[in-house]
Amino acid sequence: MTHYKLNNSSLNQLTAGVSVPTYNRENVKTGIVHVGVGGFHRAHEAMYIDQLLHDESNSNWGICGVALLSFDQKIYNTLKDQDGLYTLVVKELDGTLTKRVIGSIVEYLFAPDSPKAVIEKMAHPDVKIITLTITEGGYNLNEATGAFNFDNPQIIHDIKNDDAPITIFGYLTQALKLRKESNSGAVTILSCDNIQENGHMTKKMLLSYVAFAEPDLLDWISANVSFPNSMVDRITPATIPTDIAELKEVSGIEDQWPVVCESFQQWVIEDEFIAGRPNLESVGVQFVKNVAPFEKMKLGLLNAGHSVVGILGSLMGYSTIDEAVTDPAIGTFLANYLDVEVTPILRDLEGMDLTAYKQTLINRFSNIYIKDQIDRICSETSAKMPKFILPTVHEQLKSNKAISHAAFVIAAWAIYSLGFNEKKEAINIKDALQETLLAQAKLAQANPKLFLELEAVFGNLSHSVIFSDAFAKAYQNIVSFGVEKCIVEMNNNTLNQK
Ligand code: CS2
Question: Do residues 491 and 333 touch, judged by C-beta distance below 8 A?
Fold first, then answer.
């Protein structure tokens, strides 16, 4: 089979079962700047926009992808080499692969090399929407105080260096300032991260920064920038070398960084686009008045469910989510956690069949073709925990309801943080707080409750006697009996109570 390096000139040669953009990419103008061109963005928003661009009347809505961190050099180089093109490989439930080259990223910038170009692009009058996937930890929230973290050295850097920022807050502030000065008009900032009320969070954090760094800009922002909340969903494992090799072998495409994902896709947004938006309904995006209940459901069930399976699975020595969730002990534990400790806090979901949603979620986790990595799921747990699991714990505690499964998972995470699974193999931990977690996890070996004193993650949770006691008991049980025995016992107890 002939092999083609993926780029503009090879596009028309790719016919072997691969769909390609049939619109003229040269006519597409950038209307959206997206920050954080990771796998998720490329499996989700960029895919929706690609679909949209097939209707030529939408040609004002191309994407400029911004790689913000020096760590993102590789994705920038890849996009540049491939004219912004990449292959999206959708793994259907029966294992069939649907391959589609995505063409919606028509420009790309590497912020560390050209901060000015990024600011100018964000401030360009044609740009009407700035979207973000900057991860749960990217919003610079101090979990202990609930306020913007001005102690972050990168924020201190941005306050001193207007024209060469490194954080999203520095970039957005300078871009909005330039929009104001050059009359570029209003703009929508749309967060696509897994955070409850992600639009409100973005607004709150950005305004805190602006109030300090550029207070004169506040009025302009309040009249010219909107921050809709949104809920995003599509499981997108990390691309592995066999994905790249398979694409080359079967389809002849040499793509340095294809993206693989599940077939499920969902995007629910509040319709508050101050500077207009494309007709996203036409490609299946749902618009609602209040996205909060959907976001709460998704974060509390799916994302928290992922962390539950990931942490327990990792300690038991599994490496993928499907392997772990199809272990009956973990699968039952997950189902019980979702039913007993999360479902009671969900409301205002008229028309939503929660039982079906939970079943679909478990089917999605169990999909053997996806092979989502536990390492991916457990990465940055210190940022995910306060967004996915702890809000549920607080609500349950407030109404004196069950928290034992959550306490157990957090106890398992304290042991996980020591760096070894129950087979005594090293765990590949990737977490911005890794060293702090390890230090705290070591202290917890003598007195488990000390783990909860990590305020940057747990806020004031350690003040709850009910929770700390459940946590300490779970910790001791795991140390004495191992995860599997403990969860089998918890599963039996839940069954007896039903
Ligand atoms: C995952 C998410 O990062 C995680 O822990 O739960 O990446 C999840 O796969 C997506 O939010 C699915 O929409």
Answer: yes
Tens of pLDDT, residue by residue over 380-418, are 999 999 999 999 999 999 999 999 999 999 999 999 999
DSSP secondary structure letter of residue 298 = I
Query: Based on the domain organization, do 111 and 167 belong to the same domain?
Result: yes
- Joined tokens for residue 218: 């506040």
CATH number of residue 28's parent domain:
3.40.50.720
CA-to-CA distance for 221 and 314, rounded, in angstroms? 45
Domain count along the chain: 2
Domain range for 55: 4-288
Residues with CB under 6 Å of ligand 1 are 194, 233-235, 303, 306, 377, 384
- Sheet bearing 259-262, strands edge to edge: 18-19, 97-102, 86-91, 259-262
Q: How far is the CA of 196 from the centre of ligand 1 (A)?
A: 14
Largest CA distance in the chain: 67
Q: How far apart are CA 222 and CA 231, in angstroms?
A: 23
State pLDDT tens for residues 57-69: 999 999 999 999 9
Do residues 395 and 278 both lie within one domain? no
Probe target for ligand 1 pocket from 195, 294, 303, 409, with the most ligand atoms within 8 Å of CB: 303
